[in-house]
Structure formats: structure tokens, C-alpha cells
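Q: Give me the 3D complex with alpha-L-fucopyranose.
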Amino acid sequence: MITAGLAMAFPGLARAAVQATTRGAQESLSLWYEQAAGPWVEALPVGNGRLGAMCFGRVAQERIQLNEDTLFAGGPYDPNNPRSLAALPRVRALIDDGRFAEAADLISSSMMGLPKTQMPYGAAGDLLLDFQGATEAAAYRRWLDLDTAIASTRFSDGKVQYKREVFASAPDQVIVIRLVATGGVMNFDLGYRHPRETSYGSTDYTGAKVETAAPPMPWDYREPLRADERPSSLSLRADGADALLIEGRNVAAAGIPSALRYAVRVQALGDGAITPRGDRIEVRDATTVTLLVAAATSYINYADVGGDPVGMVRAQTAAAAAKPYARLRSGHVHAHQALFRRLSLRIGAGAADPRPTNRRIALAEQQPDPGLAALYVQYGRYLLLSSSRPGGQPANLQGLWNEGTNPPWGGKYTININTQMNYWPAQSANIAECVEPLLRMVEDLSVTGAVTASKGYGARGWMAHHNTDLWRATAPIDGPLWGMWPCGGAWLCQALWDHYDYHPDPVYLRRIYPLLKGASLFFVDTLVEDPQGRGLVTSPSISPENEHHKGVATCAGPAMDRQIIRDLFGWTLTAHALLNDSDAAFAAELAAKRARLAADRVGAQGQLQEWLEDWDAGAPEQQHRHVSHLYGVYPSEQINVRDTPALIAAAKVTLNTRGDKSTGWATAWRLALWTRMGEGERAYGILQGLLGPERTYPNMFDAHPPFQIDGNFGGTAAILEMLVQSWGGEVRVLAALPKAWPEGALRGVRARGGVELDLDWADGQLKLLQLRGKPGQVVKVRYGERLTGMKLDGKGSATLRG
Ligand code: FUC
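A: Here is the predicted complex, encoded as C-alpha cells.
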């Protein structure tokens, strides 16, 4: 359900929001192409946070592939293994004895969730528009305008000019497809195709070269629409004089039965003759047609599937049909721009690049293209705004966009890095509203995860392991090497804390405090003494997905857990003090345990140790994609160049061993880490790789490979971080500016403490810095060696000239 009042849905934000800044910089805000999309990763995404569409821009047969963010498999389920708690003491004893493989075996046989996998995300099918007689096109162009959030296609057949626009409206909760013919008419049949199973393997991520030079689509290409592809549970029929209604059920998975019903309704409005014919709508002799598409499931929340999707899609299409197209369009554009236009970025001179986007990506590693980095930032902001809006589900592994019923890694929420990375840019990129779905997901997890805490660990509070899904499952899955990690929920709290840090507001703090407190309580109850006296540790755990010995990841007290819990306890203590929580005993215990968490360690190679033992040099995968023990450097600030230079030196040793090349998200993390450490040139080299064709598809989706959206978001946050950082009570300006970016302008980037900044730089030097915030507030700004306390005036602004 989409909540109307943002302020109610997400207290604190309305007060903290600042006025949209003037877009002070010229920038290119379009992705564009000279050919229709062939593979799915060439199609252009639109989304309103809940409904998504991939637009192919094909000539003879347009394909619009649909998603709805609650269309997951299965239904409400309790995944907690009743044998888990009894096995826990034995697992811990085996770990204490160094018998890690035996501990992992026992975890595998007694502690994994039931079922051992979670429910995959699905797809809502395809609209196929078959145009009569269309076999070729001239003057073809398709593009995605990030500033209006509209995907467009135009071409001509020599006589008639055709134009199509597609957008996903947040205010009207429909996808709108507008088709216009000038100088002639259109004739087409509108059909619907049920989603098919996608055939990605989940293991093909180890560096396969991505196909970027797919042959251009023939203009007359048509995909078959075969009746036998429709499962029997699916009904497809005319609904009134001008609409199709599709009703279906989600799929069962891993023994969890299908519990969701869904509906898609497509209503066709326009001139010419619009006639339903069985499972199609015929459009004849039309010059202007508007298709309104609504989709919904019966999902109300993770425990309630009693919604009325047919009623919803009928109401939504009917409401939209009552508005003229111009109003639907302007309502959509206005809602998008109110958020999107808060930030602008120019890197370089800002001259428009004459090449189509796929060409720029193909050459990104060979030629400097600073404008592509700026476009990547705006695309990242566009993607988060389109996949995570108040009232909807959080951005999943693919954001919102998924082609079929078996996406890579289930297209769910992997919370040992991926979901967290999705929200890295939310604050700095000035689109903090996008965090609201994540806040509600954590609120859900604090309920389902309390059951896992008590049934699995005999503990108070709540917790989540390394994955969750629409049903908010929190038990460990997949196997001990991936799933037996207790810090997924704790790490999610960081995005909630960051929102407070960037938008300090006591109402919001009161809302998240029980979540922080519950997450902390779980660790108060489950931290154990390291038998060698090094302090308090988690057990059992892993350093996400990395083996310390061949085939074994199970251990106690990996560095990442200690760092995350140190942060979590710190946020909780700060909130406890700010809110005057009277539970003094809780705070005292938290502070005492925080002080006794085992410290970060430097190993024999001079590296930051990934585990409590110095196993790093012998670990089987020296270049492993995860860099979990560097959480302390980024996104945390525990380890930083100002306060802990020795640990920073150790982190660099670690990162040099890991190497710069990795999967999409892991490349983005490396980029963010070198950036945070002030190493602009190293960061720039990594960024070139991220923007190039091995890690960016033609539609600018991140290539793990396959497509996974976290790299887009991690990359967006890291590029902004190259220009402005906010940690340790200071704002750092141009701290990792590479030589390749001597000039540019950034407007509307945010920093901790409720501050917004504009900056101009030229010749590699800061020229102008403007701050906005609370009148009288003092902001510490560091530029190079210079640290300046800037006091905001009575209007809440301050200016520094370089
Ligand atoms: C983690 C990563 C993989 C992938 C998956 C969705 O398991 O290690 O690379 O991103 O999440």
C-alpha cells in the first residue's frame, strides 16, 4: 500500500527537507541509443518505487516488460529450525576447540532454516504491441530522460512519424504508455505474455566478459506470443470495452505454497477503433493512444495476503483514465523533479557528448569521459528514486526490474552487503525519502527476527542473518558458508542511523530507537568470551562468504562483526542519551560490553586481519570479492586517515592483496574504500573499470555479472564521496579529486548534521563553497590541510571562496 502523506510515513523528513536547489550546472541527463533494445540489459527502466517497466523501443513489436515489487514466490512462513538452539552450545565448543569443519557440519545439519532457501522475486509479464506492416524505421532514436523520468522512442517509416513515451507515475500508481502517429495512423494488437523462467545460473559471476556489442535488432523482429506458455491459473480476458484483465497466482517455491494472487489491468484510450478480441485488444486507425497499466498483488504485509488486487487495478486504471494525458504526465514529472532536481553535477566542461550511451560505455576504459561519471551519479539517483519510494518495498538485488521467475540469487535481499550498498547514496545524493521502505522492512524484521533470536539463540532482541525476502525470513539459509552470520540486521540499522545523522530529528530518532535497542539486546545476550582472552566475540559466525581454510568459513569473532557491533552499540548509546531513556542499567551494560569487544588487529603481512586469528595469508581466496573487515573504513568511519593511520596502512595492504578488479558491487566497494582513504588516483582507475563494458551494461545497469543493481548505487555514493565526504565531525571537500577531473560543479549534495553544500572547482582547486543548514550552526570544513569552522548566518548559509 502506498502511503499518501510522506511526513506521516517518515517522520522528520518534512521538517528537515530543504528547498530544491537551482540546478547550477549544465549536465547531460539522457541515456540514448540509435537502435532498439535486443537483450534485456539494453532496455530502459522506468519505475515508481512499486511498479517497474523495461522499455525495449522495438519497431514492429514493442515489448514493455512489467514488475510489481510484492510479486515474490511463496507466502507467509516460519523458517526457524526448532533444533537450532539445542545445537548452539556444541557448535560454540567445537569453534573454541578449533574444530571449524565439524562446527560447520553441525550447523548444516541442525541450524539452517527450513527451507534452506528463501522465496524468489518474480515478474509481472510482458505487454507486446504488434504493429501491422511495420518492417523498417528511419531517424530512429530512443532515450531515457532522467530529469523527467520518461523513456521515449521515435522513428519514421518514411511517411508517418511515430513517437512513444513511457513513464511510471508515483502520484497515479500506473504505468502510462503514450503512442502518437503524425502524418498517418497506427494499427496494432495489444497482447500480454506471462513471465517465463529466466535462465541465469547463480554462479556465473566470476568474471565472464559481458556481451556489449550485441548485433542490432532487425526492425521487424517479433517475439512469439504463444497461448501454451500461459499456466492454467492465469486468466486473461477483456474487462469492459477497452481493457484487458490478467489474473494470476504467484509460484510456490522450496515447498512454500503459493499464497498471493495478482492482477494486471491494461486500459486503452484514444482515437480510432479500440476493440477487445478474446485475449487481445485491437487498435485500428488511431493517431493517439494512451495505455494505462496497473498491477497489484494481494500482499498487505509479510503476514497478511488478504488484499484485493483486482479491485485495486480497476480503481487505479479508472482513476487515471479520468485524467487527461497532459495531467498524468505533468503530475508525474512534477513529483519526480521535486526530488530529482535537488542535486546537479557537472564534471569537466559539461559539453554534450555526441556519442550514444552504449558507445561511451564501450570506450569508458580507453578514453577519459568525466561526463559519464556524472551521468552515472544521476542514473543512480534515478534508479533509487524509481525502485524505493515511501510505501513500497525496498530496492532488491535488481532494484525493481527483473525479467522472469528465477532471477539470480532469487532477486531478494542479501543483507551481508548488497541491500546496505543500495542505500549508500540515499543521504549524500539528497534523496533520503528512499530509505523509508527500508525502515519499514527493518521494523518487520524486528518482529520476525525476534522469533529467530529467541528460538535460535535463546536471546532477547531481534536479529537477521545474511538474507531476507518479502516474507521477512530471518533464519540462516544456503549453508554455513553463507548463512551462519548474525549481523545482517545490525548492519541494516546503519542506513537508519545515517538518516538521523543527515537529518537530525527527535521524532524520527524515537521511531528507530526500539530497533537499535532490540538489535543491541541480541548481542548483549549472545556475545561470548574469546577463550584466549582477546575480548567479546560473536560465535558462530563467518567473515561474509570468505573461507579461512579450504571449504570452511565458520569461526568466532570476525573483524566485521566486531566493527558492526561497535557501531551499533555506539548509535544505541547516543540515542539512549538523546532521548533520555531511563533504562540506565541497559546503557551501562552496553557501554561495558562495547569496551570489551575484541579490537582490530594487524597481521604478520601488515594487513588488517579479517579474522581474530592471523589466517589471511593462507586463506584460499586471496582476491575474494567481499572486503568485510574493511567495513570499519567504509561505510563506517571507525578506521580513518585522521585518527587511526596505522590501521589505514593495514587496510591498504589488505586492499592491495585483494586487487582492484572484482564483481560489480565489489568494485564499487573498493572504489569507495580508496576514496574514503583520500586516494583519488587509485579510485579513478577503479572507477574506469566500473564504468567500462565489463561492469556496465548498455543500459547502464551494473554487471555483477549478471545484472545486480548494488554496483550502481555503491558507485554513485563513491563518486559523490570523491567530491564531498562527511565523517568524524567534519565535511571534507575534494578529498579524493583525481587529476582527470580538473573542473566541475556540484549543487545540493548533503552532509551529516543537516547540511547541504554547493561547490565549484577549477584547475583542480576549490573555487566556491556554499553551505546551507541551521542558522548559527558551525560546520567544520576540511579542504586539503585547512580546517575551517564555518558559522552559518541568520539565514542558515555561509560561503567560502577558494
Ligand atoms: C553475495 C555476494 C554475491 C552476490 C550475492 C547476491 O552472496 O557474495 O557476489 O552479490 O550476494
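A quick observation: The chain is about 30% helix and 20% strand.
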